[in-house]
């Protein structure tokens, strides 16, 4: 039986979306990943682009509020940003809670090339974390 993992971020636009996509793509035989935010926005197009670069399509993802998962049993809850970690409501439907604070690529500025590089760096840190923790 697959373990259910919920990645939680503030806006559910980049970090948590990339983590959900990578875990499902790379370890989908062992885990079923979901993502949500303490607020709802939209999936960042740069996150979609950098995941596509490594062959993972998250273009069909949508931003979801944590409320959608209240009462849904999860094996592991992973907060991927410090703000979500601090603001995360009580979530008693999980067995394990992990905090992995990744930098927010959404605040990147500069040229498109520079912004993409920031997103790639964060993507790669997320991948390393997932490979180490779930691989």
UniProtKB/TrEMBL annotation:
One of its GO terms (biological process) is response to arsenic-containing substance. Keywords: Arsenical resistance. SMART domains: LMWPc (SM00226). Pfam families: LMWPc (PF01451). Residues 3-132 form the Phosphotyrosine protein phosphatase I domain. This is Protein-tyrosine phosphatase, low molecular weight. The lineage of its organism: Archaea, Methanobacteriati, Methanobacteriota, Stenosarchaea group, Methanomicrobia.
């Amino acid at each position: 039986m697959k373990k259910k993992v919920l990645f939680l971020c503030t806006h559910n636009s980049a970090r948590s979306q990339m983590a959900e996509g990578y875990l499902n793509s790379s370890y989908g035989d062992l885990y079923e990943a979901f993502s949500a935010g303490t607020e709802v926005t939209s999936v960042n197009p740069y996150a979609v682009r950098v995941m596509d670069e490594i062959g993972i399509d998250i273009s069909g993802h949508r931003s979801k509020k944590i409320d959608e998962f209240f009462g849904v049993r999860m094996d592991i809850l992973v907060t991927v940003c410090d703000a979500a970690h601090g603001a995360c409501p009580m979530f008693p439907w999980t067995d394990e809670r992990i905090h992995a604070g990744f930098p927010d690529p959404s605040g990147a500025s500069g040229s498109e090339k520079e912004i993409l590089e920031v997103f790639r760096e964060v993507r790669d840190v997320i991948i390393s974390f997932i490979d180490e923790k779930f691989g």
